Each structure stands twice: as structure tokens, then as C-alpha cells.
């Protein structure tokens, strides 16, 4: 809040239900209850996340590899050049090549020893490209080794094993006067990555690239084939109307929408609203709230609700605790549901909830604005026409798994 006016306006939006008991709420926690974790997170000073953090810290990491990589990228690892500047050692040259001062930039990708290994590893990972200057190479890795799947894990494991073993070889030469050639270090990296990767379940989409990737690393894998089904807008039954609601959240604004249609797909009423951005779940609930309000205004008492948020259904059915900020909205929703003759709520696919999604994107400058069907934009009219005609939409719902076993390396 930047001004007293904004504070006053926010207080005006607070709704007090005189019939409900007071409730103690721990506002820094999403669940309303006190937790040490939420309290700690609200108090601690958060620094910006480093670009390469997800490259080093990920689910399937080898802890010692990630730790050494973190030390190098954070520049905590003491290079000979740094020690030379401090006067600790008399020689600053790289022990791996003897050609340049040993600093982090040189060790990372510039050193011919590291360059040889990283070039071969890039080929193993399916890339045919030249190594960039250290900062750019790191950014390239961050951009290309992202995601949460088996192939990405192997790429990240390789990235960390590279730093670990280059540093380990450097230490071996400095402290033990033992030398291993680059191809031998490369073999060790390949072996360790493959051993680690063989320990977790590798499930990837069945593509030529993924098959070749696993083949190159001599790894067994499960290749998944996506399966598409058709879905369509759900018509109401049992003399009910269908209420579709949705909420959306962007950086600067949040919107929600609701549309009521009869069993012929004819629009009975529609509404949209906006509020300050909070969370998707809250705006989804606001969509349901204005939808029920719209139904009440038009005298509909037998309602089937279709939402594309399973979370909203859990809140309405009291299977999950809503965020504390949404409690007044939930009370309003339950109050309106109690006044209905018939109410049911079900999950619908996003593809069949596009009319409500369109209304949610309108973001009018009020919490509730009724929109007459004659003023609908052409896009929305088209969606309603297709829904009414029973148009089917393709959706990737489930997959079956083809197990593809490779021979031993
Ligand atoms: Zn070197």
C-alpha cells in the first residue's frame, strides 16, 4: 500500500459476516494456520535467484558434484591465480594445460583440457556446436538444460560431473602430483552420469531424438506415446442450467467470468469482473461467486456448475481449506448454494470452458458487470456457436507406455 487512500479503499472491500464466529488467521500462511516454515519465509531476506541455480540444484543430482559446481560458479573455489594474488603461492599457471593463469573463467571452458571434455560431452548430449565464452556458455546451458524430465536430468548431471571432475583433476595434480589424460577423465564422467541415470526411472516422450539420446548413453527407458481424446461442452440435464465460470491472473490485473446456458446451449446471462491480483485460486472462486450471483438475479435455482479448476471443486465440497483471503468469498458461495433447489459442480476440460475463460479476460473496471449476449464480441459468439453445435476439441489426456529396452553397453 502506498497511500492512506489505498488503505481506506482496501478496508471498504472487507466483508464482515455478523452471523459467523471470529476466526484466528495467521496471514503469512496460505492455510491460515501457523507454521514455522511460512513464518521463516516471511521474515527472511530473499535474494534474487541466480540464473544457473536450477542447473546445479535439482531432484536427481549427485550431491558432491553439485556442491563443487556451486563452489566454482559462486567463485568460492580458490584458484591458483587468486592464491597467487594473495601471495599464498608463487605460481599462477593452470596445472591442466600450463598455458594460462588458472582462474574460474579459464577452468570452466577456456582451458584446452576442459574444452576437450566439454566438447565431447556436448556431442554426447546431442549438440553439435562451438563452445561460447564462459558467461554465454553458462547462459546457454541454463536456457537449454531446463525442464523436469529424465533427459534434462541427464544433461544437468553431465554439466555438474564436468565441473566436479575438472576440479578433481586439478586437485589431483596440485596435491598428489598425479596426472590423468582428458579422455580418461571424460570416461569417468560418462560412467558416473550413466550409473546415476540408471538408478532412476526414465520416462520420456517417444521421439527419434529421445531414442537416440538414450541409445547414446546406453540407458534403458520408457517411451511414452501421447493419446488424444475428444471433448465437448457439457450440456445441463434435469431441468438445470449450466453455469461455466473461470478466473485468470496476469501480472497487473485479474479477471473472472461466468456464463449461464440452457440445455440447447442458448445463453441466458453472462457476467465478468476484475479485482487486484491475488492468486488464480481466489479469482477462480470470484468467478464462481459472480456466477451464482448472476443465477440468483435471473431466478435460476437449479444449477450445474462446470469449472476447469479441481481446486475450486475441493474448496466448495470442503475437501480442502481455501486460502484465508478467500474465506469471505467462500462464505458467500456456500450461502448462495444453500438457497438453491439443486446444485452440482464438476470439473470440465479447459478446452470446453472457453466461453467463461473469454469473459474472465475482459477485466471490466468493477467486481460485477453483467454483459448482455447482444454485446458479445465475435470471438465469444463463435465459441458459443461451436459449443452449442457440440464441436469436439482434441485433448491430450493420458498416455500408454511402450517399454523400449536396449542391449547392454
Ligand atoms: Zn588450463
Question: How would you portray this structure in words?
Answer:
This protein is an alpha/beta fold and 409 residues long. It has 2 domains: 52-200, no CATH class; 234-390, Ribonuclease H-like superfamily/Ribonuclease H (Nucleotidyltransferase, domain 5, 2-Layer Sandwich). It is 43% helix and 16% strand. The chain has 16 helices and 9 strands. The chain has helices at residues 4-12, 36-43, 53-56, 63-73, 80-86, 104-110, 112-124, 134-144, 150-175, 182-197, 208-216, 280-297, 310-316, 327-338, 354-360, 378-388, and strands at residues 203-205, 221-231, 241-249, 254-261, 267-275, 302-307, 342-347, 369-370, 393-404. The strands form 2 sheets. The chain has a 6-stranded mixed β-sheet with strand order 7-6-3-4-5-8. A hairpin with a 5-residue loop joins strand 4 (254-261) and strand 5. The longest helix is centred in the middle third of the chain and has 26 residues, at 150-175. Zinc ion (ZN) binds next to loops.
List the uncertain runs. Answer: none
Major pleated sheet: 6 strands, mixed
Element order: H for helix, E for strand:
HHHHHHHHHHEHEEEEHEHHEHEHE
**Total count of domains:** 2
At the fourth CATH level, what is the homologous superfamily of the largest domain?
Ribonuclease H-like superfamily/Ribonuclease H
Strand content: 15-25%
GO molecular function: nucleic acid binding; RNA-DNA hybrid ribonuclease activity
Domain RNase H type-1: 244-363
Pfam families: RVT_3, zf-RVT
Domain Reverse transcriptase zinc-binding: 34-118
Amino acid at each position: 500500500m502506498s497511500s492512506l487512500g489505498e488503505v481506506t479503499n482496501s478496508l471498504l472491500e472487507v466483508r464482515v459476516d455478523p452471523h459467523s464466529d471470529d476466526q484466528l488467521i495467521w496471514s503469512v500462511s496460505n492455510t491460515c494456520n501457523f507454521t514455522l516454515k511460512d513464518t521463516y519465509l516471511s521474515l527472511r531476506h530473499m535474494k534474487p535467484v541466480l540464473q544457473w541455480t536450477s542447473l546445479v540444484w535439482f531432484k536427481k543430482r549427485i550431491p558432491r558434484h553439485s556442491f563443487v559446481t556451486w563452489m566454482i560458479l559462486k567463485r568460492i573455489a580458490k584458484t591458483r591465480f587468486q592464491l597467487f594474488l594473495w601471495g599464498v603461492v608463487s605460481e599462477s599457471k593452470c596445472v591442466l594445460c600450463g598455458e594460462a593463469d588458472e582462474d574460474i573463467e579459464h577452468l570452466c571452458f577456456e582451458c584446452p583440457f576442459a574444452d576437450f571434455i566439454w566438447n565431447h560431452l556436448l556431442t554426447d548430449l546431442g549438440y553439435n556446436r562451438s563452445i561460447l565464452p564462459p558467461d554465454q556458455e553458462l547462459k546457454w546451458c541454463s536456457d537449454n538444460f531446463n525442464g523436469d524430465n529424465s533427459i534434462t536430468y541427464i544433461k544437468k548431471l553431465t554439466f555438474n560431473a564436468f565441473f566436479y571432475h575438472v576440479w578433481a583433476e586439478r586437485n589431483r595434480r596440485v596435491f598428489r602430483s598425479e596426472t590423468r589424460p582428458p579422455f580418461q577423465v571424460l570416461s569417468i564422467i560418462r560412467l558416473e552420469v550413466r550409473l546415476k541415470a540408471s538408478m532412476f526411472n526414465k520416462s520420456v516422450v517417444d521421439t527419434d531424438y529421445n531414442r537416440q539420446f538414450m541409445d547414446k548413453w546406453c540407458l534403458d527407458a520408457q517411451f511414452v506415446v501421447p493419446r488424444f481424446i475428444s471433448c465437448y461442452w457439457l450440456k445441463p440435464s434435469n431441468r438445470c442450467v449450466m453455469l461455466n465460470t473461470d478466473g485468470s491472473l496476469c501480472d497487473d490485473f485479474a479477471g473472472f467470468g461466468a456464463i449461464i446456458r440452457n440445455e440447447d446451449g442458448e445463453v441466458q446471462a453472462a457476467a465478468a469482473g476484475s479485482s487486484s491480483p491475488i492468486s488464480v485460486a481466489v479469482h477462480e472462486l470470484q468467478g464462481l461467486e459472480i456466477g451464482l450471483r448472476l443465477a440468483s438475479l435471473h431466478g435460476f435455482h437449479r444449477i450445474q456448475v462446470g469449472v476447469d479448476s479441481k481446486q475450486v471443486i475441493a474448496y466448495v465440497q470442503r475437501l480442502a481449506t481455501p486460502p484465508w483471503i478467500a474465506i469471505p468469498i467462500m462464505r458467500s458461495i456456500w450461502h448462495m448454494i444453500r438457497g438453491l433447489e439443486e446444485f452440482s459442480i464438476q470439473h470440465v476440460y479447459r478446452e470446453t470452458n472457453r466461453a467463461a475463460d473469454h469473459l474472465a479476460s475482459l477485466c471490466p473496471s468493477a467486481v460485477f458487470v453483467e454483459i448482455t449476449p447482444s454485446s458479445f464480441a465475435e470471438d465469444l459468439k463463435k465459441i458459443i456457436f461451436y459449443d452449442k453445435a457440440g464441436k469436439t476439441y482434441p485433448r491430450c489426456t493420458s498416455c500408454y507406455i511402450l517399454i523400449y529396452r536396449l542391449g547392454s553397453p
